[in-house]
Amino acid sequence: MKLTTKFTLWYFGIMMVVLLIGGAIVYYEIQWKISRVEVVRHERLNDIIAGQIRQGGDFTGHPTRKRATIAVIPADSVPKGIQTFYTRGRGWNPEFQASEFRLVVTSFYVIGGLHYRITTYSFIPSFYQLLPGVVDSFKWIFLVLLIVVVISGGLISKYNLAPFKRTMRVIQSFDLKQKEPIHLPVTRTEEFQELNVFLKKMTDKAQEEYRSLKEFTENASHELQTPTAIIRGKLDLLMESDIRDEQAILIAEMQNALDRLSRIHSSLTLLTKLENQEYTANVSVSISRLAKETITAFEELIQMKELSLLTDIEEKVNIPLHASLADLLLQNLVSNAIRHNIPPAGGKGEIRFTVRREGLIIANTGKEPSIPTVELFERFKKGNPGSDSIGIGLAIVRQICDLSNFTIEYKYLSGFHVLAIGFLEKCPASKLLQNLSVPLHLTLRP
Amino acid sequence: MKVLIIEDNQELARNIHDFLAREGYICESCETIEEAKEKLSLFQYDCILLDIGLPDGNGISLLNLIRADFKESNVLIISAKNALDDKIIGLEKGADDYITKPFHLAELHARIRAVYRRKNLGGANIVEFNEITLNTDTFEAKVGEALLDTTPKEFDLLLYFIVNKNRVLSRQAIAAHLWGDYTDNLANFDFVYQHVKNLRRKISSAGGTDYISTVYGLGYKFNSHKQAE
Asked: Is the pLDDT of residue B84 over 70?
């Protein structure tokens, strides 16, 4: 629910309560005021009548006597301390032939030693007759307020929340990799000022950390690669000098170790760069074309290992991925499938490779893994500890998938290592494996 | 061939110098952009090896100058940063190739030759050695008049051998040349062995001399002095 809507609803609630109380106040106020005015008028009328009595003479039929009752009462029935009182209640109105609300004002006078009681009355609007009027007017007030609150609520919050919305936009488009610090809109609202200060501090800090991490990675890369290059060069030169066989073996072992070192190093640097999200895809890449190219590049190796290759590559499948990463992904997958391919007893090694709009599946024959397949995604985890690989290929594959929001699933099914990558959110890798439209992998279901 | 090595690390520069000097190249080294500018203004070079990270600035800036004033020279970028940005910017600014540290010297040499061939031989990209002829445009390899039925990798391997003839080529160097970086699995030397074996067989059966020999423990060597038996 939007903040504006929430505020508006709260205002409605408050308005309802206030209007109800206000309505009651207005209702009783009007009632009281009408009575008051009538009472004052009648008191004056009673005074006039008393004056006429004092003056003497016959005032029968005079307009003042129309609704007046004059009585001489004994002194002891005069209430003490009161000169006037009034009562309200229903009474018969002969003029309208109806029972109506009547206000009776009684005053006491002492004229010429006699105690007079003068009573006059009039019919006033009943309070029940007033009520609909009050309710009606409050209905209108409520309606007007409603419209005003809705419109002004929208406008005011739009105006007041504008800096907040601008801040949100800035934060949404914030990229850790951007070189310049963020620019937040100026605002006079204290809370937003606080928010902006906080956000500014946080993003600046994040950018700084990111920069220093990146710098470290680059430095590490640079500073380590150069000595490695020197050693490798020296070994290359040493190899050509006049050396004995034992020395040759030593050099070869050094070359091997150096090779591993540089591979581990470059793979770790790459992983760090992936984690830092340095490769973002701006354009999509044709995975169909790349898959075919990768297969071609590895064809000779596949033949050399006498593997049979089955491919089913859908045309024109484009995915949002940096071209270099897509290349890396496929290279790792295909080379893994070749490298770790162990033909079943008495059979031929096989690779099955499917590319679909929803994802890709690559399967190769192999022994049942000794550790859970999920763990193979971890760095330096190897299915076979004795192998030459450094065990980082799958970690790179997973990192690329994570980066691109692809799902990945690794299963061992009927003698095959099956790795599925789902490109679409609605079709995760696990679902892909059950998809009947992947004919190459039909027989691999458990 | 005259080569200018712009590299701030003296040891690395000496490695390159020693290796290339044996090929009969004339190599000069310098360590900073300023020195490089001076050298470039005095002499003409066929090939410039340019390190990106130099003490007085980024090697890329020098690339602009080289491309403006010394169009004939080939430029090969040497960088420790395997950052894609550098690679793309470098090639866009007119570098001819890009090599990442740590590289094998034989690889560097092969790249220098490849760039040189592309640029200086006017399209007739023929590499010859005795009876072996390689056409780097059509990827055709011939022994005498007989066409060799080589796979792309075998062709690549043969070219690598001929360019680095009389050098000991380690299996690592060959693997790196054929399959590039990030080949976690291709430290697998069986493939190298297989490729070399097939290549030797093909040359021999086409009547060529088997120049390639195994170097104990290390790798292989293309022996140019070997005579046909």
From this structure: no
Asked whether the beta carbons of residue A230 and residue B103 sit closer than 8 angstroms, the reply is no
pLDDT at residue B186, rounded to an integer = 46
Dihedral angle of Cα B113, B118, B124, B129, to the nearest 10 degrees: 10
Considering only residues 195 to 214 of chain B, which have any Cβ-Cβ distance to chain A shorter than 8 Å? 195
Alpha-helix runs per DSSP H in B27-120:
33-42, 59-69, 84-92, 105-120
Q: What is the DSSP letter of A1?
A: -
B53 interface with A at CB cutoff 8 Å: yes
- pLDDT above 90 (res A76): no
- Give chain A's mean pLDDT: 85
- pLDDT score at A383: 62
B9, B194, B215 member nearest A226 (Cβ): B9
Interface subset of A 311-370, CB within 8 angstroms of B: 324, 328, 331-332, 335-336, 338-339
- Asked if residue B5 lies in contact with residue B28, where contact means CB atoms within 8 angstroms, the answer is yes
Radius of gyration of chain A (CA): 48
Helix (H, G, I), strand (E, B) or coil at A137: helix
Say if the Cβ atoms of A393 and B185 lie within 8 Å.
yes
Weakest mean pLDDT among A42-56, B22-36, B49-63: B49-63
The rounded distance, in Å, linking the Cα atoms of B65 and B75 is 12
- All domains in chain B, ordered by first residue: 2-120 (3.40.50.2300), 126-222 (1.10.10.10)
Model pTM score: 0.66
* Cα gap B23→B165, rounded to integer Å: 10
Measured in degrees and rounded to the nearest 5, phi and psi for residue A358 equal -80, -25
Identify all chain B residues contacting A259, using CB atoms and an 8 Å cutoff: 172, 176, 187
* Nearest in space to B208 (alpha carbons), one of B150, B168, B156, B169: B150
The residue among A378 and A395 whose pLDDT is bigger is: A395
A224: left (phi over 0), alpha (psi -120 to 50) or beta: alpha
Question: Two tokens at A213?
Answer: 């991490």
Confidence of residue B122 (pLDDT cuts 50, 70, 90): low
Identity (one letter) of the amino acid at A198? F
Give the phi and the psi of residue B219 in degrees, each rounded to 5. Answer: 170, -125
SS3 B24: coil
- Contact B121/A at CB under 8 A: no
Q: Which residues on A lie below 8 Å from B191 (Cβ)?
A: 301, 304
- Looking only at the bridges linking them, the beta strands covering B168-170 and B219-222 are antiparallel
The single-letter code of the amino acid at A42 is: H
Nearest CA in chain A to B185: A389
Domains and their CATH numbers in chain A: 3-132 (no CATH), 190-275 (1.10.287), 284-444 (3.30.565.10)
Longest alpha-carbon distance in chain B: 56
DSSP code at position A375: G
Are the C-beta atoms of A251 and A238 separated by less than 8 Å?
A: yes
Q: What is the pLDDT of residue B190?
A: 79
Is A270 in Cβ contact with B81 (below 8 Å)?
no
Positive or negative, the CA dihedral A83, A88, A92, A95 is: positive
CA distance A221 to A148: 65
Are the C-beta atoms of residues A281 and A321 closer than 8 Å to each other?
yes
Ranges A369-378, A404-413, B136-145, B181-190: which has the least confidence: B181-190
* B74-79 and B97-100 beta bridge pairing: parallel
Tokens of A95: 């003029």
- CA dihedral of residues A80, A81, A84, A87 (deg, nearest 10): -60
